[in-house]
Amino acid sequence: xxxxxxxxxxxxxxxxxxxxxxxxxxxxxxxxxxxxxxxxxxxxxxxxxxxxxxxxxxxxxxxxxxxxxxxxxxxxxxxxxxxxxxxxxxxxxxxxxxxxxxxxxxxxxxxxxxxxxxxxxxxxxxxxxxxxxxxxxxxxxxxxxxxxxxxxxxxxxxxxxxxxxxxxxxxxxxxxxxxxxxxxxxxxxxxxxxxxxxxxxxxxxxxxxxxxxxxxxxxxxxxxxxxxxxxxxxxxxxxxxxxxxxxxxxxxxxxxxxxxxxxxxxxxxxxxxxxxxxxxxxxxxxxxxxxxxxxxxxxxxxxxxxxxxxxxxxxxxxxxxxxx
Length: 324
Hints:
The protein has helices at 6-28, 33-44, 50-60, 67-91, 102-128, 132-158, 163-187, 193-216, 230-233, 239-247, 250-262, 266-278, 281-301, 307-321, and strands spanning 95-96, 99-100. With 324 residues, it is mostly helical.
């Protein structure tokens, strides 16, 4: 068990994060006044910078954090920010991290173009510095993220998802990006292919645990920045619900499906959450989340220990055990 806190991880990376933030701001600049205003707004409402931290700590495992490490972190954050802007348009979300979303302030058309701009800046940053390896890793992640979102939407329409398909969805839409963070970070300080594959798998396992944790928030009792029961209202069949459907009696299963299809009021979803808890769906999801967490940490612990190992484990536990 790590003895450090998330704050100490930030302290450890503080000088590097400061350099990263400067480079990231520079990578987003535009001569178009409206676009530059929006870029400034995005930078000011930045989140916890979890993904850049994974990049930098992964780099630190195998050498000194360097210019390539910062470029890798900027590429990941440009891609991640672009997907968030596009997601808010798709989800018709008016808030992101407690701030008004880009589409809420400037409408959908501008938000889509802003997302496209961010993607293009990532591509140009890669090409300008001939980071073709980074570009390949991130292009694969974009492909998988798009496939994962579309697969989830398709299954939501049909209310037809198995546990295996659920894992495929979250591997593509969430774990693929965290896998890219760890692979790109490592690739900035080592060229050993087996090491890069190991770090990619480590990131994937943690990404799976991270998404299950995020899905569990849907069944909570307090607002954590994500509207309660949002996935249920969107007919997304996440792991707690899938397990409940699998183990419940026929009458209970019919009630679950009927509520997913026709439920509209808060009491409908409260009843559904109560059923999922009774059927053991929440505990089952926690068990699988912890399984992926331990599999990821096992990979990390197979790498020769450095000071950054402990900080990376602390970051991993933070994203999986966080309360919001």
